[in-house]
Write the structure tokens for this entry.
Amino acid sequence: MTKPKVFLTRKWPRKAEEAIGEIFDVTLNKNDVRLSKLEIAKAFAVHDAIAPTFGDVIDKSVIEYGFKGQGKIISNFGVGVDHIDIETCKKFNIPVTNTPDVLTDATAEISILLMLMVARRALEGEKQIRENIWSGWHPTHLMGSLVNGKTLGIIGMGRIGQEVAKKAFHAFKMKIVFYNRSKIKKDLGFPIKQVSSVTELCRESDFVSIHCPGGKETFNILNAEAIANLKKSSFIINTARGDVLDEEAVFNALSKGLIAGAGLDVYKGEPIINKKILNAPNTVLLPHLGSATYETRTSMGMKVLDNLKAFFNNTKPIDMVY
Ligand code: DGY
């Protein structure tokens, strides 16, 4: 029996590439160059499956092109699928899978890291050491804000939001409030309070951390109006998608001293970053590191493999997006 043909749009961790190569007839992107829509479309047309990832644009033209050829399934390497036109996939009956669960801890860790770094002024301190401008310990040197015991407002109480809540509660005794479009009844084993709007969340929070999916419905979910309700001592953290945060409003709030800081891992139009964000005071900016651990990225590849194995064995993949 001939093996189904699978196209990986980017380089994966070696173990995961080897594992998928044992089961399928795989085309790798050895140089790891970012591919154009047309390149992905052409690849989809001559493979049974594509495994795209964040940064690839899988729009109607790509899906249609693949469908007219050999393309049968899109198995995304990553949990977020806002770069894939799901409605068109439905129309052409092309299933889409993703890789939830395995990146929950890694992404939650980066949210906590950003909270600590920005509140405790870690980058400013590190810079002083490297530039040899540290004048020594003194009582008013680089004072930041305590994270412990503060109120954390979470936007989007899915898997990652819940994990951030757990880590924040257990490690830092934080109080947890959250905004989620649907009602969440889950018992996390400690008190959590759902509020009915992002504005209300901002009013109550010392830290606001965003964990909702990207896409049209959540575009700028944390906007100027909501940010205006934050205290001057509060911080914004984003490890979700650049599109969910109004960067212009964050810049205005930071430069006018209306909030204390922001820790960001994702950006609108990344990897190009809005100059205002680059120049804003009191920021910690990371290059989309949410799931970037060896363990996590390998597990993400293994999930793609499992989903494809299920599909080509005529069973339902475990991580069906629709
Ligand atoms: C995801 O899985 O959506 C991440 O953002 C990619 O690391």
About this structure: The radius of gyration is 21 Å. The longest strand covers residues 151-155.
